[in-house]
Amino acid sequence: MTTDTQTRKSETPATSQYKPVDGLLLEVEDLRVEFHTEDGVAKAINGVNFDLHEGETLAILGESGSGKSVTAQAIMGILDMPPAVIPGGQIRYCGQDLLTMPEEQRRKTRGPEISMVFQDALSSLNPVFPVGWQIAEMFRKHRGMNKSDSLERAVKLMQRVQIPAAKERVKAYPHQFSGGMRQRIMIAMAIALDPAVLIADEPTTALDVTVQAQIMSLLQELQEERQMGLILITHDLGVVADVADKIAVMYAGRIVERADVFDLYRQPAHPYTKGLLESIPRLDQKGQQLAAIGGLPPNLMRIPAGCAFNPRCRYAQDICREERPELLTVAPGRESACHFAEEVLHG
Ligand code: SF4
């Protein structure tokens, strides 16, 4: 059976000059991002490393202010600079460093190579143009297609993201769709140019639980079908459990734990991850109070010395206030930045 996607892909000439080697799409190495403000320098990202392969889903998890969205924006190249400054690191896409690439060349990677779905579909869509027109614009602008062909492609994409009666609704405006349907339209726009990497930044936060699950399953389907590398940015472990292959947990601009999704859920190796897991409602603990992590994430202008998590950590000892723990392997495929990772893992 030929799917809409297969039809669309065959209609779209492969023009990418970027080719992954051994499936490796993205390498983020020692990335640092600061925000220079009148009040001081906020160190938003403090040496982040990860990679992403074709067909792989990486969830980046953390509370608000952990640096997960700034990481995504740095990869997309959409940080406001200034106040943002990138004092170090590399973001290599198919081996080429996006941070040193001429802006014109980099601009052309946004959409056809790396694309992004944002949290708030209503403010991301233009309220004065029909949704079909907005999707079709991607094809007109980037593929030089005429009006009727690009609209036809927009309808196919709307069908692919399961918008009911897509042919009729192609002329409808964003406010005429529900939140879930608007997010599907954003996804259609994000995948229109067959990106190799799709970043979804809290794509379901504004939606109810049932719609959240539908959107996550749509993203998973599209990712498998197109073998995209998918980065899911989330504060909610529960949302990404069924979708992600591996998880990087961020705190105060650093990755503090990295593991396959199954291992991390079964046995966290960092107190922060443990706290996040304990704060997820579980059916087998009905009626019991959830254990939220006490305290607040640090002010990024005054990150605590030693381990940034120490003021909130129930495992903290003197060494935690003095020495910053590095992200080290604690078991096969498991990394944790904690002086007591072994105890946490086996405790
Ligand atoms: Fe807690 Fe210390 Fe581990 Fe940091 S290093 S997470 S403070 S036990």
Describe this structure in words.
The model is unreliable at 1-14 (pLDDT under 50). The chain folds into 2 domains: 24-244, Rossmann fold; 251-281 and 291-346, no CATH class. It contains 14 helices and 12 strands. The protein is α/β, with parallel strands linked by helices and 347 residues long. An 8-stranded mixed sheet has the order 6-7-8-3-9-10-12-11, with helices on both faces. The protein has a 4-stranded antiparallel sheet with strand order 2-1-4-5, covered by helices on one side. Residues 271, 307, 309-310, 313, 315-316, 320, 325, 338-340 line the site of iron/sulfur cluster (SF4). Iron/sulfur cluster (SF4) is lined by residues 271, 307, 309-310, 313, 315-316, 320, 325, 338-340.
Give the arrangement of secondary structure elements:
Blueprint (H helix, E strand, L loop, with lengths): L3 H8 L12 E14 L2 E14 L3 E5 L6 H9 L7 E10 L2 E2 L5 H5 L6 E4 L3 H4 L6 H13 L3 H14 L5 H4 L9 H13 L5 E5 L7 H18 L2 E6 L2 H4 L5 E6 L2 E7 H6 L4 H8 L39 H5 L5 E4 L2 E3 L4 H6 L1
Parallel strand pairs: 3-8, 3-9, 6-7, 7-8
Antiparallel strand pairs: 1-2, 1-4, 4-5, 9-10, 10-12, 11-12
Helix pairs in contact: 5-6, 6-8, 8-9
The chain binds iron/sulfur cluster (SF4).
The site of iron/sulfur cluster (SF4) has 12 residues, from loops.
Taking all Cα atoms into account, the compactness measure Rg is: 21 Å
Uncertain segments are 1-14
SSE string, helix = H, strand = E?
A: HEEEHEEHEHHHHHEHEHEEHHHEEH
Number of helices: 14
**Can you say what the CATH homologous superfamily of the largest domain is?**
P-loop containing nucleotide triphosphate hydrolases
- Average pLDDT taken over every residue: 88
How is the CATH topology of the largest domain named?
A: Rossmann fold
Hey, roughly how much beta strand do the residues contain? 15-25%
| Ligands present | iron/sulfur cluster
What is the helix fraction of residues, given as a range? Answer: 25-40%
The second-level CATH architecture of the largest domain is 3-Layer(aba) Sandwich
The SS-based structural class is alpha/beta
- N-to-C span: 51 Å
Top CATH class of the largest domain: Alpha Beta
Count all strands and give the number.
12
Taken from the alpha-carbon principal axes, the silhouette is: globular
Domain count, please report it: 2
Largest sheet, if any? 8 strands, mixed
| Main sheet strand line-up | 6-7-8-3-9-10-12-11
